[in-house]
Every structure is written in C-alpha cells, then in structure tokens.
Amino acid sequence: MAMPRCSVMGGVTVRTELSPPACQPAPGIVFNHMVTKEHARISPTERSVFHAISDPTRRVILDHLRRGEIGAGDLAARFSVSRPAIARHVRVLRQAGLVRERRAAQARFYSLEPAALAEVDRWLAPYRLFWAARMGDLKTLVENEDF
Questions:
Q1: What is the dihedral of CA 141, 121, 113, 77, to 10 degrees?
Q2: Least confident piece of the model among 23-27, 46-50, 95-99, 101-105
Q3: Which residue from 22, 44, 77, 106 has the least number of CB within 10 angstroms?
Q4: pTM (predicted TM-score)
Q5: What is the C-alpha to C-alpha distance for residues 99 and 90, in angstroms, rounded to an integer?
Q6: Contact in structure between 61 and 89 (CB atoms under 8 Å)
C-alpha cells in the first residue's frame, strides 16, 4: 500500500490521497487543518496567543467579541463557514486564553478575555517606539522641504 503524499504550506496540508495521516511531500487535494479531526491534539505552540491571532477568521471573531458577549449560534451565523468550523476556531481562542465561555443550560456564550492580549502588546511596544521615531523624522523632513 502506497503512503499518502502531502506537504504543509502556510497551515494548509496538500495531499494526493485522503487516507491515514502519515505523509510524504507532494501536491494534491487541499484541506484546512482547523476542520480535520486528525489534528485534534493541540500543541503548546498552538495554544499561544500569536498562533490564535494568526488566522484571519479568528481575528474577526475577536472583533465581534470586542463588542460584547455573543451566543455560539449568533456568532456562527455571522460567518459563511459551518458552525463546527467556527466552534473549532473558538476552541483555539479559548485555549490561548483569549475567549471566555459561559454556559447557561444548553446555550454557550462567548466573551473576549483581553488580558491575554498583553503578550502581544509587550511584543509590539518596541515597534511602536520605532514607528513613532520614524514619523517624527518624516515630519521634520516634510517641514524642512521647499515645495
């Protein structure tokens, strides 16, 4: 039996066959890791805030939650992808500490947990200083130019 061939590029696995997860690099069928069951185990790297915010769908979810608590169904209805796909994105955000879940009977409600974004804020701080200095240099240059 031939081993399926696949490669990972930018978080997307490319396969020639849909069979067991063992892979060798090759082009073929493309599928999203977020929607496959074989990647259900989450590594410590994938629990990081940076991993969680790297996906555009998860950033949009955070934008919705920034406005207040939202029920799971209402949140999923705002996207064109399936409810299970949104649930998987929310799970990644919860595991990174960015989203809090509240259960009321069978309903689930999600809200933003902004404290986890402090890690991103600390990482961005030197870049803010860099750009503030560059903007000051640009202002000086423009003010001293003769047009």
A1: 50
A2: 23-27
A3: 106
A4: 0.60
A5: 7
A6: yes
